[in-house]
Amino acid sequence: MAISYKDSGVDKEEGYKTVEKIKEKVKSTYSSNVMNELGSFGALYKLGDYKKPVLVSGTDGVGTKLKVAFEAGKYDTVGIDCVAMCINDILCHGAKPLFFLDYLACGKLDSDVSSEIIKGVVEGCLQSEASLIGGETAEMPGFYAPGEYDIAGFAVGVVEEDKIVNGSDIKEGNVIIALSSSGAHSNGFSLIRKLFTDLNEEYEGKTVGEYLLTPTKIYVKSIQKLTENIKVNGMAHITGGGLIENILRIIPEGLCANIEKEKIQIHPLFKNDKFKNVNEDEMWGTFNMGVGFTVILDKKDSEKAMEILRENGETAYEIGYISKGDKKICLK
pTM, whole model, 2 decimals? Predict the structure, then answer.
């Protein structure tokens, strides 16, 4: 008896349906630098006019936030998360996002679900002004549980060599400015899922599932406007490990980032009673607590910087300063 690929669990037709459902939306992200159509073996992208271009790349996924999407049956936001996690990282070095590629894997492909996920990726790319120039959808029966997916992405940006931001210009007396998060973003969900066990419970006018699936904020437009007008000495994307683990990554030896916790505008999510079961150190060392991104710059530029950020839709405010010290970060 003959056996087919479909008999083994792989439905190529469902993959073709996915492409048909997303191809026009994907094209909406293309810039004039994209040189190929969806479906090429490789993606072609013209770099454009730069004097000493440096490519900046980053890759990431969405983590167990996907479990919330599976249980809630809501798939249109996790693609935004995937883009945000990659794009916000390369943004920290002053890079202008150029393009993005995604990888979607599942046990059994459902074109309705996969196209919803990719629509989120498209939205994330539009917010980032990056072209979605390629990707891969892998159907792997027996590898993933029915109804479960994984998604990861890869972003590339460019910055002139003399405009790279890497923290080396940070100095004593600089101030630290916070940009508010939209919630937990895509970090700490293994713990969050243990605290919020009923995703259908009503919370803040939504179900818990819908509320937790609020997508990660993308800071491209506001940060680019800032770096066009002000010298920024350091930037940090506040992901897993919170302020403690992410800001210290850019602090030079001999300096300390002093963060004043009472100045931080805690996101309402982290004030929920469920978090009373988590000690304070764990909270600050796991979650962004309401700060999704930080910039460090000269004190004389602080007011203008916050004005620019606010004009571009951010909630921006000072949370600390740089001093001399052996410890690279101090929360007090």
Answer: 0.95
